[in-house]
């Protein structure tokens, strides 16, 4: 069983395929240093090395896309530092790596709120995306976090809804939709913001607003929100 980064990289190379690399590219994933391996194939490897902070660092430093995805899956959030989060976010070059890091690792650290604010204000495309992806992840996983915390993030969403960059606007939209779906308390303010953005002069803001308003007005979603809030 591979126990070090070199062995794992050798294993990853045997799993990769050009067909998978082509499929990744079609979904807008940067394949410059990718082997072409699905998440389904990576998860069993990750399960063998959970909470290995040292191995995660070595895999990340290799620079390979799937090795970095593995690093995200196996790292120990209790050992992750704010400096590490900044360094990794600065190296993001693909939306999937950004989102997996936020959903599977960064959201479990003690620096969530600080990094949401910091990264959302950062001008770098994938760092700003990370801010809003982390907000979306926190909305999903922060079960004990008060709704007022997420209510306070709506002005941040409104401020950056005019960012025309594709990977940013999609993450802003994601965060807004997740806040609106979290509870009845949050649904009204989120929908109001979505409807306001839908009438904006800015093209990105209009797209974000219309897409979010469509989902937040869907009867099926409204029923789910009501059931979730009744628990």
**Low-pLDDT stretches:** none
Count all strands and give the number: 0
Percentage beta strand: under 5%
Number of helices: 15
One letter per element, helices H and strands E, the order comes to HHHHHHHHHHHHHHH
- Main beta sheet: none
Please identify the structural class as seen in this structure: mainly alpha
Shape: globular
Give an account of the 3D structure.
The chain has 231 residues and is an all-alpha fold. It contains 15 helices and no strands. Helix 4 (53-62) runs antiparallel to helix 5 and helix 5 (65-74) runs parallel beside helix 7 (95-104). The longest helix is centred in the middle third of the chain and has 17 residues, at 125-141. The protein is globular and about 50 Å long. The chain starts with a helix and ends with a helix. The mean pLDDT is 96.
């Amino acid at each position: 069983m591979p126990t070090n980064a070199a062995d794992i990289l050798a294993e990853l190379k045997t799993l990769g395929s050009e067909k998978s690399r082509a499929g990744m590219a079609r979904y807008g994933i940067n394949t410059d240093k990718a082997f072409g391996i699905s998440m389904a194939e990576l998860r069993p490897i990750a399960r063998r090395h959970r909470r290995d902070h040292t191995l995660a660092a070595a895999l990340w430093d290799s620079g390979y896309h799937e090795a970095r995805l593995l690093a995200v899956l196996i790292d120990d959030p209790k050992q992750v530092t704010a400096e590490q989060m900044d360094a990794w976010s600065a190296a993001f070059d693909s939306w999937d790596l950004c989102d997996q890091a936020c959903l599977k690792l960064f959201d479990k650290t003690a620096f969530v709120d600080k990094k949401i604010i910091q990264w959302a204000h950062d001008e770098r495309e994938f760092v700003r995306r990370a801010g809003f992806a982390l907000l979306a992840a926190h909305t999903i996983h922060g079960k004990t976090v008060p709704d007022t915390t997420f209510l306070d993030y709506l002005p941040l969403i409104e401020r950056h809804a005019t960012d025309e960059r594709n990977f940013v606007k999609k993450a802003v939209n994601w965060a807004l939709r997740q806040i609106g779906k979290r509870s009845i308390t949050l649904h009204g303010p989120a929908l109001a913001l979505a409807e306001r953005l839908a009438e904006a002069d800015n093209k990105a803001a209009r797209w974000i607003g219309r897409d979010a308003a469509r989902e937040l007005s869907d009867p099926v979603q409204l029923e789910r929100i009501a059931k979730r809030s009744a628990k």
